[in-house]
Amino acid sequence: MELQPVKLNRRAAVTALTEMSGFIADISQKLRTTIVLIEHDISVVMNLSDHVVVLDYGRKIADGSPDEVKADPEVISAYLGAVH
């Protein structure tokens, strides 16, 4: 079976974000498939994902569960509040 990608593009609006998050979760469950999500809103990523890979300037700095990733010192430094 050949995989057919579904490409979604959303503008950063709170209602669109809520709707898009629900849509992505529904697709993942109904189709029983993996979703590759490229998103800059950390809360969206952490709420939707079972597994997270974090890039910083194109370099992988973390790979694991949402809890593992948000506790990673490099992720904290790059994205969650430390001076970068």
UniProtKB/TrEMBL annotation:
Key words, A-Z: ATP-binding, Nucleotide-binding, Transport
GO molecular function terms attached to this record: ATP binding
GO cellular component: plasma membrane
All copies of domain Branched-chain amino acid ATP-binding cassette transporter C-terminal, residue ranges: 59-84
Natural source organism: Rhodovulum imhoffii
InterPro entries cross-referenced by the UniProt entry: ABC_AA/LPS_Transport (IPR051120), BCA_ABC_TP_C (IPR032823), P-loop_NTPase (IPR027417)
PANTHER family, per the entry: ABC TRANSPORTER ATP-BINDING PROTEIN (PTHR45772:SF1), CONSERVED COMPONENT OF ABC TRANSPORTER FOR NATURAL AMINO ACIDS-RELATED (PTHR45772)
Gene3D superfamilies tied to this protein: P-loop containing nucleotide triphosphate hydrolases
Protein name: Branched-subunit amino acid ATP-binding cassette transporter
